[in-house]
Amino acid sequence: MFSLSMQLNDLSGPIPPELSKFKRLRDLFLDVNPNISGRLPPELGFTGGLRYLGVSRTSLTGPVPRTFANLELIRFYFDRDGVCIPADLEAWLQTVPEREDGYSICTYQITVDPPTLYFEAPPLGDTARLKAAVITAEGDMVHDANISWSSADAAIATVDSTGLVTAVDYGTTQVTATSDALTATAEVEVVLTLTDRQVLDSIHQLLGGENWTDTTNWLTDEPLSEWYGVETNDAGKVVGLSLATNGLAGPTPDVLAELGDLVTLDLSGNALAGEIPSGLGALRQLQSLVLNDNALEGRLHPDLGRVAALRFLNIGSNNMVGVVPRTFANLALDTLYTADSGVCVPPSLDEWFAGIGQTDEADRCAASLAIAIVDLPSPTFYAIGETGTLSATYVNAEGDSTHEASVTWSSGDASVVSVDSRGRVTAVGAGTAEVTATHDSVTASIAVEVALPENDRDVLETLYDRTRGNGWTKATNWLSDEPLAEWAGVETDESGRVTGLSLSGNNLRGTIHPSIGQLDRLVTLDLSRNWITGSIPAEMGELSRLLNLILSVNALTGTLPPELGALDSLRALNVVVTSLSGRVPPSFAGLELDSFHAGGTELCLPPSLATWHAAIAQSDTPPDCAALVSVKPSSLTFAAVGDTARLSVTIIDAEGNAVESPAVTWETDDVTVAMVDATGLVTGRANGITTVTATYDSATVGGAEVAVRLSGSDRAALAALYHATGGDQWKDNTNWLTDEPLEEWHGVRVRSGRVDELELRNNDLNGQIPAAIGLLESLFILDLSNNAITGPIPPAIGRLQRLRDLNLRDTGLENPVPPEIGNMNGLSYLSLTNTNLSGPLPETFANLNVERFYHSGTGLCVPRSLAAWYETLGNTDPLPCIPETADREVLVALHDATDGPGWQDRYNWMTDKGVNTWEGIATDEEGYVTEIFLPWNKLTGSIPPELGDLARLEVLALYGNDLEGPIPPELGKLDRVRILLLSSNELEGPIPPEIGGMVSVDTMFLSGNDLSGPIPPEFGNLVNLEHLSLFENDLSGPLPAEFGKLKRLKSMWMVDNQFEGPLPPELGDMTSLEDLSLSRNKITGSLPPELGNLQNLKELGLNDNELTGPVPPELGNMSSLEGMYLMRNQLSGSIPAELGKLSNLETMWIFDNEFTGPIPAELRVIL
Fold this sequence. Notes:
By secondary structure, the protein is mainly beta. It has eight domains: 2-106, Ribonuclease Inhibitor (Leucine-rich repeat, LRR (right-handed beta-alpha superhelix), Alpha-Beta Horseshoe); 109-191, Immunoglobulin-like (Sandwich); 196-359, Alpha-Beta Horseshoe (Leucine-rich repeat, LRR (right-handed beta-alpha superhelix)); 368-395 and 406-450, Immunoglobulin-like (Sandwich), CATH 2.60.40.1080; 456-617, Leucine-rich repeat, LRR (right-handed beta-alpha superhelix) (Alpha-Beta Horseshoe); 628-708, Sandwich (Immunoglobulin-like); 713-873, Leucine-rich repeat, LRR (right-handed beta-alpha superhelix) (Alpha-Beta Horseshoe); 893-1029, Ribonuclease Inhibitor (Leucine-rich repeat, LRR (right-handed beta-alpha superhelix), Alpha-Beta Horseshoe). Helix content is 6%, strand content 30%. The strands form 21 sheets. It has an eleven-stranded mixed β-sheet, with no helix packed on it. Strand 57 and strand 58 (681-684) form a beta hairpin. It is globular and about 115 Å long. The two termini are 62 Å apart.
């Protein structure tokens, strides 16, 4: 067999290794078979002829087998979420020309098989077993791994300790397997398979059956044919449902489509709402559909035109819209009633409509216009002179739409608003006016209001409108009549004036309206962590009482308004992670700020503000402003040798002042293309593109792009590429630099005499892309991927306006992406994957209409101002652009202290790329580290105390390494850490008492180390702790009574230590405890009766200690207990009868003690 293509099926199970017996197999395509599971069989690595392998969109998991190194694949696509690449196979994968983007290097992982479970019910209670395995980075199974199971929603499905899943109720949930900090989930879906009786029950429930006019026999055990309005066939299947004028109310239920034998459906004269379900198109036997006199909305779905048996349709007197779909031409209707439905018959269906025997006065479709406002949330203006743009959509009689149609605009009241020929509306005076659009005698109008804010309430309502308040995360009482102090995020003084406005992280999207300046009592304004666009209004300078202005992490653009320098009361200003740029205004010299933060912006500090900035107690360090050299025009194009043009230059110094008669030095990057004299006169000399620069003060440079495009420019551009990228050493350079037609050159395609395609993928190009590439102005496809190209992307590439596909992936390109790429209007596909490009995507990308954009494996980040554009591509979870913080230095200290060069995975560590691209590191939007996740990564040495300086750290996971030395007491400063995982290392010494400062921690795993000494009583401060693992250490001393303060603790695993002394009775105060494991220690004394207070305890492990005395009868109160392990102690006395109350007990091991007397009869019952 040569080719096996089985994609787009519903195949299941593993890939059979026997496929490797097809020694001539070249193509194996199994893509889009979501139920293919298991792992890639290693045997495939011995299929010597295999070149094309596709297993994407399957459920395969685990590492790619090492035997694949034997394969010379040309294309290999797989599911990157399930399949990973062993580190020693990464070099092999790089040789595959077409391969999966964004793959991950294998680490320790846990897998669940199968990844999905599907139950059909009734009946409920069916079971299926999941299997979990812990896999090493090398792909080997850990056979003795400790795995626990949990269900996200036990009301839908439960799972026991062996992975057995039981369907409980209908719905979807996830079952999770956990081993240490590794987790994997399986989707569990319990689907209701309905009988006709159940469908009718659902209809009764969904459509308010308790209020129906006639419900005779409904919901009884009577045959369905005895239910009011129901008709059945001989098999008892529902063929008719007639419930006209019967008080039905609510959205028309989709479940109607489950009545597969339905012939007649009459629900007329009720209060049905919503759209007619498209699923009714599946009722192939339906002959009569009567839905008139309801409140139905929306459009007729085209699927209804596929009900071939339909003969009678009545949808009259509803609130629907749109046209009768063209698919209705397939229907052989005898009767059609649509009057007053809102639906019209288009001209294309005139002949079909005329052939229907019985019809009413159906509306005939006519052309229409619809008006929308483009750049504002609503057609309301809040200031004189404010503008907004209207757009008209023309819908012809067939229902086809023309967006942004050419129309004539007019205003009904020019004293309120004016409108120009492009639909640009300008507010003139307070009031309301109609703005009308006309196209081919068709007109439409929209009401436009000019409402000038007069008080604080008006200003807040304006803010709500302009930032799309209906999408806010929290908007309690906004726009209501409640006092402003009751509005979410608003504070007022005794007179009701607004003094505080705190809407951080509230999903504000839009601009800040200048009327914000009317809140003249405002003290605090916090709009951080939103998606606010546009500029900071200068009117904020009127907020004379403002103390705190926090606008960080937004998409703000423009400059800091100098009017803010008048805010004498201002003490804190934060604009980090915005797109603000330019100089900090000189007027800021009068501000007495305590804190000023502007990291992650393009703001700079002029020299005159250096002393002012140095006096601020808390501040980051904006770069110093430099002079700006501007060359005009910014680009020149010559069509003949000897053509000339003069460039001019403007210099703005570091303070923002124009320099009179500046002395500059002119130079050209390539004198063979163009030369420039001392006056800026440029002369074209030969085909090519160069940059002419003007240098001021020996340091500051500005430039203009100069293109010389002569006859034969395409050939010259290709020759420049050849020489710049080592063409003599290319894998294939057939006919390059010869006199053969360009289409005979390897990788070149020509159309209409110009180069149309240039595909040199995986061709050993080595060097930089020359600027002359910009001469290929007719280029449609450019593919230079999988080559050793280095350096920057030349800005001249932005000249390729016709380019549709640009593939530069898997190259050594570096530096930021040039903003000129945003000029490439025709670009549809852009791949920059696996390059060294870094920095923020240019703002000009908002101009692109790309359909596919790939940039994984780079240091490129998405600024907040591009988030909306990025979302239109269907991309999620973009890498945010973050500013530099001191946290980078802490990470460097971690790297140096733990032998960073020897780590197993250290992607991007110690590079200039954002630390949020470093392996195992996550940050917040302001660049502060929130997560360090480096398990099983071959870290050695000691944990550096500098980690205690990561003030926003939430997760610290360093388990499974070879770390030694003590736990630094400085970790106690990490009061935001929720998860601390340091198990399976060689840490030693005592647990520092300072660890009690980690007051937010809910999970602490310190097991599998050499820790010693007592547990400090400061553990009692960890009131949020839920899971504590200290097993397999050398800890000693008594358990602190302060454990009783841990009211949220659920699991406490402390086996295999040297704990001694009695159990503190305060353990009985840990009422959330579910698992208490203190086996194999040296605990003495008696069992405290207070343990009986642990109503949620499921596992009690106290075996292999030195406990004495009787078992307290109070232990019989532990109603949730499933396992009791007290063996190998010195307990004595009789077994209390009260243990017989433990109805959930499954395991009770109490052997090797000194119990006396009979086994209580009560205990025999549960055993």
